[in-house]
Protein 1
Amino acid sequence: MIVAKTLAEFAQAYSNLENKADIGFVPTMGALHEGHISLVKESAKRCSHTVVSIFVNPTQFNNKQDLETYPRTLEADCKLLEECAVDIVFAPRVIDIYPQEDTRVFDLGGLDNYGEGPRRPGHFNGVAQVVTRLFDIVKPAYAFFGEKDFQQVAIIKYFVKDLNYPLTIVPCSIIRESDGLAKSSRNTLLTPAQRAAAPHIYKTLCKAVELKGKYSPKEVAAILAKEIDENPELETEYIEIIDADTLRPIENWNDAENLRLWCAVYARPVRLIDNIGL
Ligand code: AMP
């Protein structure tokens, strides 16, 4: 496993890969956990080579404090990846990815009009900026993304198709702690009291299944938000039942074929997101 910390180091390691037509790619921001590792394993299973990037992308942070406090643990990350079949860890500097300001504005097909989009202005455009740059450098045949970031996967699929990238996006299931909390790099920033409260989010989301027969989608969302907020450590920012294909919040249960329930909840100042299929 080669750890490339500059574009030049990456180019050198890349030139030694035998089968460049069958590269699996896992983009991450580091502070790796089993959620990330599940994507790496999926790549190793499917592809001749696996490249993992570790890059805390400044253009997708709309909150300066979030960018500054984002955990950075490169050494521990590399130790974890050593145990997977990874060929290259690409941990570039900002200047390698953005030699000058990236002013590109992407067509995201309106999929950024919902959920995280309006609450994190510029976030998904920043994701598109970094992901396209990384795709251009790594040229993968497959790229693996977690459904933990459900909206992100939908948006990436959209612009990959729109821009004719010759690669397949593989969505991977959410990996959870044994108490149900979705694994996240941000979980390490929770206080013990917040960490103890956080599983309440997933437990509450799961109640939607039984409430579905009795209430409208909006009523169910309101009931769940109230229940999450009963915990003093938690504060729901939004909870919505959406059409999983268009990401639009639904009014009636038969408005869409595939339903998803998604939410963002503050354990201040940390912001947690989660989702389940309905
Ligand atoms: P991040 O480092 O948070 O940008 O995440 C990198 C990739 O790992 C993204 O595709 C995430 O959706 C995915 N990921 C993060 N947490 C999980 C999880 N708990 N289960 C599955 N995938 C995850």
Protein 2
Amino acid sequence: MYPGSKVKASAGNKVLRLATTWLVVAAAPFCAAADTPEYLDAGLSIETRVEDLLARMTFEEKLSILHGDSKFTTAAIPRLGIPRRRLSDGPHGVREDIGPDTWENSGHTDDFATALPAAICLAATWNAELGFSAGELIGQEARARGKDIMLGPGVNILRTPLCGRNFEYFGEDPLLSGVMGAGYVRGAQSQDIASCVKHFAVNNQENQRDMIDVEVDERALREIYLSAFKAVVRTGGVWTVMAAYNKLRGQHCCQNEYLIKRILKDEWGFTGLVMSDWAAVHDTKQAVLNGLDLEMGTEGVGYDDFYLAKPYRDGLRSGEYSLAGLDEKVRRNLRVMIATHVLDAGRKSGSLNTAAHQAIARRVAEEGIVLLKNDNQTLPLDAAKLKIIAVIGENATRPQSRSEDSSSIKALYEITPLDGIVKRAGNQVNVIYSVGYQKNGGADLTERALAAAKAADVVIYIGGLNREKGFDCENADRTDMKLPYGQDELIQKIVAANPKTIVVMEGTIVEMDSWLGKVPALLQAWYPGMEGGNALARVVFGDVNPSGKLPATFPKKLADSPAHTFGASGYPGVNGKVTYSEGLLVGYRWFDTKHIEPQFPFGFGLSYTDFKYSDLELVEGGEGIVTARFKISNTGTRDGAEVAQLYLHPEKPSVMRPDKELKGFKKVSLKAGETLAVSIPLDQNAFAYFDPAKKGWIAEKGDFGVLVGSSSRNLPLQGVFKLTQTTTVE
Ligand code: BGC
């Protein structure tokens, strides 16, 4: 309907159509219900409600919900009872309120929230249930803060350790990312909000993120970079997808026909809405025709001049664009509203900053912290045997949840590592703190830190990266993989002063070669969220037995990493184009296939107890076409949890395949001395590769090594499964 034409029926004018007969009978006891338009009747199907609402909307009303009317909202349609839609970042909690028309924080006092550990820490838990709980928490806090769409999770694959946003994603493996992402989305969307999976797709570097054009072969695109998105769409049921800033094969992702129209919507059957990243749209025609449904954040023009506002209106009026196309975009927006009960009386109202949420934040950190080294059982510490602990390092006192970027959280509080250690060590232990290094620190800081180290029974060094520009941040990558602020030298001096130095790294992957061999213990703590200090202290003092596993390979040096093997064309790109020459061989797929020794392999993480794997059996049938059954025993003296990992190694594939790939995992808790039977089913998808010629997934017959164990490089159980038929799988 064009402006000026009549509205078919409105909420107020009591026009009821055919379904009335049924409605009147069904709703007889409640007379008012007979007047309820179909779209407000929560008892009807989503599609019925969508069509009814769509039919009532004017041309202008339709257009008005396809673009932002502030930084993070879209317009209300009061006549129809459609409220303003409120979107919010991000993956680690509900961001503080912004705007409305600027990027300034709005200065509200009621926007403190629970700050979860960074997504990479959640991935390091390898605990799908915890993924659900984290998402559920986000959903509850979003509702309590009046939000409708939460902009997360991000499931871009870690291609280079330098990418500024690796901490916001789930690491280098598509299966792990997909499982964690889908669980998170199911949890969040159980709370009557929509999640938004981002950034679709191949947004694997922040360097030149607005314009970089990604050239990637079809198999790598499908098998590595799109696979987690597909899982989040198909098994997570995500309602919204955010298209990325960058280009794929010459076309910006927000207007990318292949990605949005053909793959996401046609192939995967996605029925929700596709929104742009903020200020990522460049062309009305492409955006309109290639499937963008909601434009957000465009800079430098008024909201009514967004690409999907006036220029779209003009094109619709002139007949360049079809009204059916407009309806399809509107339908997708309405579907998300109705599915998340935006128009329903009983919509969940959520909860904010509860003790239960803080407990989840702590649990994610406890399970996501990875014990990378522990010579001579240096850890856990026994507070009763210590007099002086020296805590050294700027990150010991630096809250990491708040930053300049979209994933920033205004945490209700944040327990820093020093807070947590002081509290847990108790009154009998003297904890001395020395900052050790700083952005512009000098030799005096080193001297004081060394004096503290010498005076103490044990040193806990807390360093790594932070969230300032140039480290773990948006819109910039690191320029190398080195520790900043002279930390390499500092750590070596500290360990020389006190050999009992435990190193705790915050942030993402750094080079460790210069000091790793000298320190007896190392923990990777990522950005552990508002309860991070408590979680870390509980790990350090043994209240929690660490069970995190690396979601990404830690290379010894940057040059070992696949994206950095092919010169500038492989990273950061030449003349605006980056070519993924390593193809499928991302992360451990590269290190294993090329026999390169990593610093720490994918899936690696130690425990304070020992686990033994035994009795592998491959049983045909069950939940999949074959199920790996085996036993894990906790042979140590402490209770603990282990992540059993299953990799497939195709023996003689007819096409190039990585040496091995993760195809299943399970996290299990075992009491000291306990043995548990574990089973991991494999369906046909586990065996499949993408065949670009056939445009489909092929599970090719042949022998597959089935490798089971505690990391990608410790796989004590090995069997062979013969796939007897070649099949095409979905
Ligand atoms: C980021 C998105 C974020 C959006 C809104 C963009 O710069 O890439 O992840 O959701 O801003 O803040």
